[in-house]
Amino acid sequence: MKRILSILKEKWPEYILEILVITIGILGAYALNSWNDQNKAKALEKEYISRLIEDLAKDTAGFHIELKNTKIRFEESQALYEIVIAEKPFIRDTANFLLSIQTIGRTNRPVIHKDTFEDLISTGNASIIRNKAVFNATSSYYGNVAEDWFDEYIDRMWKGYLPKGIDALPLTSLLQVLSEEMSVSFGNKEIIPVQLKVSDSEFKMILDKIRNSEEFEFETKNIVRSHLLHISFLQRAKTDSEKLMQDLSDYLKTL
């Protein structure tokens, strides 16, 4: 025991130094690991924010195109309804009139690009977004997009008006519309100007058919209402996507 105490008395500065070196080494390694983890987390956060911005840019572009086309369909469906119920209908442009019977029943479901957000949630990386207000806004956007309405809207077109619009036109006209649409590059959602032409007798038959059909009148009136509602939903969705994209862009600049 005396020997041990004697050794400790002689070499305690060395032992203290060793303990300090070991402690500093452990703390330094911990600090370095913590710094590396923070850098990785920050880099991952930047990556997610950038990907979310890219997705929102795609959403916004899609809303813009569909909004533009739905406004055209709304105006043309209004004009068609006025012709259907008019005592003495006046048709300025027969080619556009014939085309509108077909096109006002068309629509595209806006694509919501939510792969990044779903990846953020499914991987448990939600906490990587340190700004909770930004995360909550993102979560709210994807939770409130009117996808149920978009599905209902398309269903209403395909099961309600569109069969009546198809029935009203001769097969040659329907095939012409489809042929010209298929000639356009994939992904183009703009309404295509097709110059439909029919004989005077065919035109009279088409006009009499739609004006004497209570079902066609109802479905046309219903589609005017549906287009207007769709415009409202699209405008809200576009505004929300633009605002969130701006908020995320501003936050990205602070990282």
Q: What features would you describe in this structure?
A:
This protein is an all-alpha fold and 255 residues long. The protein has one domain (2-254). Helices cover 79% and strands 0% of the residues. It contains eight helices and no strands. It has helices spanning 2-85, 94-103, 115-122, 132-144, 147-168, 171-182, 200-211, 214-254. Helix 1 runs antiparallel to helix 3, helix 1 (2-85) runs antiparallel to helix 8 and helix 5 runs antiparallel to helix 8. The longest helix is centred in the N-terminal third of the chain and has 84 residues, at 2-85. The chain is rod-shaped, with a radius of gyration of 33 Å. The model is unreliable at 185-189 (pLDDT under 50).
Secondary-structure map with pairings?
Elements: H1 2-85, H2 94-103, H3 115-122, H4 132-144, H5 147-168, H6 171-182, H7 200-211, H8 214-254
